[in-house]
Prior knowledge:
Chain A is an all-alpha fold. Chain A has helices at about 5-15, 25-35, 40-95.
Amino acid sequence: MDDFLNDFTRLAQLARQATKAPPIAPDLVMRRLDGLIPGPESEEVISFSFFMGLGTLAAVAAIAVGFIAAPAWAEISSPLRILASLPSLTSLLSL
Amino acid sequence: MPEADPVDQRIVSQVLAGDNDAFSQLVERHSQRIHQQMRTFSRDPLVTEELVQDVFVEAFLHLGDWRGEAPFGHWLARIATFTGYRYWRRRERQKKEIPLEGEREELSAPPVEEETVRGNPEAAAILLHELLALLPASDRLLLSLVYQEELSTAEIALRLGLSRALVPMRVFKAKLKLKRLAAKKPWKERLQWMIS
């Protein structure tokens, strides 16, 4: 094509004679894969943490429901308490 | 097209059946070739080793996609090409944000004498790598496939998923671009014997 590209082609030909790369130890790759593939043991760990998380979530939800429901229950329960005290009122009236 | 090696087919079947450890045999069989290929993308031994690992991890995760019609090595080489290309693209993005250490050094690098390179394949490989690094990743990849991997037009088309007719045209354009870039400073001074 021209001088530059001829020189470039010769440079590439020479570069191809450079020392070949050695093989990679399979252990290196297998260690990387170990971190990616969930084995049976890690599955157990995953399910344990999943159920632990679920339990904690349920406990937190129960406490939250308790906090929300308590004032409401107080409101509902006050007329009931009045009703509950009615017999004593009637007994007062009867006096 | 050459056929798949029955040994590779047997190992792949074993891995797909759940024997993950059998994958190490595939690494053993193909790692040298992939390591050599990844040297195209970086001359840093730590980076190339990391890239080789990336290639095999990618291959493991998509092993079911290999249909066994073509050699396993061809399928792996394709993964390697795209892994390397993604690495170059990442580097290009980083360069745009912060000029890398190597680039600053390159600006003050001494001229490369013809005598230093002649008869010294290691020096030639480094110089070739630096020269190709002048190009954008897509052009660099094409010329690397031509000059470093010595692939034919048909092989390049297959590897990159391009039409055969398009490859020679794009290679020609990449060569012209390289010539233009090498004629600029600081390469003009560094490679006077090539550019004159």
